[in-house]
Amino acid sequence: MQILITGATGLVGSEIVRLCHEQNIGVNYLTTNKNKLISKGNYKGFYWNPDVGEIDLNCFKGVSAIINLAGASISKRWTPKYKKVVLSSRINTLRTLQKGLEQIDDSNISSFVSASAIGIYPNSLSNFYTEDEESVDDSFLGEVVEAWEREIDAFEKFDFKVSKLRVGLVMSADGGALPEMAKPIRYYAGAAFGSGMQWQSWIHITDLARQFLFLIEHQLQGVYNGVGPNPVNNAKLVKEIAKVLDKPLFLPNVPQFAMKAILGEMSYLLFASQRVSSKKIEEEGFVFHFPNVCRAIENIYLQETQENNFEGAQKKEYV
């Protein structure tokens, strides 16, 4: 089996590539950086430039499934200029992929899975969102995801199955939100944001990568939520991170106005509340390796925790 991945060198893409190679699945990947082009047995890079609609059609050779992860990070200040980058990076990559597929024989391709985001769901402390929800959050993020998904829907004209995975808060030690949340906790400056009651629908990075491959393996179609089965509020999440890192929490919650002064409109990401269901993909047979946030964080920081415990034991023995 050979999979074409856009965004393969990013946080989630790297984990998907790792799982693919564990399962002897070959990976073709697209990159805008010619210095990142590698060509070895099961990992082959191809150049593209979505801003001008350029793509190396050789990237489709031998491919039976496509995973689209491309898109500029939303974790940068939302200036008017950067907002355009966030939106265009998602739209242009999909249009370039579609243009490429129109020029080849796509009969061997059976599945197309694209990342999306739970940011499409309205901010709410009380709602429990499933994939059937039709309301869209009235924020910049909601606007982006709605446009993103419209572009994904355009792939339904092809004969292969098309699915969207709405990704939640990705838990990884190598990037994303968790290291940023852990950083102040490590330096005894950790605290919940705002009321701390806002829901955070999280997922361990390995489970998320497994979900992308699960959708391909089972040739599923439609929208699925890329979140774990047990969302937690912000206060609980911060508490669990501190517990695993063995650090105290004693500061008051960080007020929203303070973060808005620092981060601008992007601070919305810290206070938006989306409690999202994973039931649909579970009903298809997906089983989570990390269903609970405490176990997920422990796994992510396992080596560090073991080293700390070992050092602590040594000190006690010495005393």
What would the keywords be for this entry?
15 strands; nine-stranded mixed beta sheet; Rossmann fold; 319 residues; alpha/beta; 11 helices; two-stranded parallel sheet; single chain
Provide a short characterization of the protein structure.
By secondary structure, the chain is of the alpha/beta class. The protein contains eleven helices and 15 strands.
Structure description:
With 319 residues, the protein is α/β, with parallel strands linked by helices. It has a single domain (2-309), classed as Rossmann fold. The protein has helices spanning 11-22, 80-101, 140-153, 177-186, 205-217, 234-245, 256-263, 268-271, 279-283, 293-300, 302-318; strands at residues 2-6, 26-31, 39-40, 43-49, 54-55, 65-68, 111-117, 128-129, 161-167, 169-171, 199-200, 202-204, 222-226, 232-233, 275-276. Strands 1, 2, 3, 4, 5, 6, 7, 9 and 13 form a nine-stranded mixed β-sheet that branches. A hairpin with a 4-residue loop joins strand 4 and strand 5. Helix 4 (177-186) packs across helix 6 and helix 6 (234-245) packs parallel to helix 10 (293-300). The relative contact order is 0.13. Mean pLDDT is 94; it is low at 313-319.
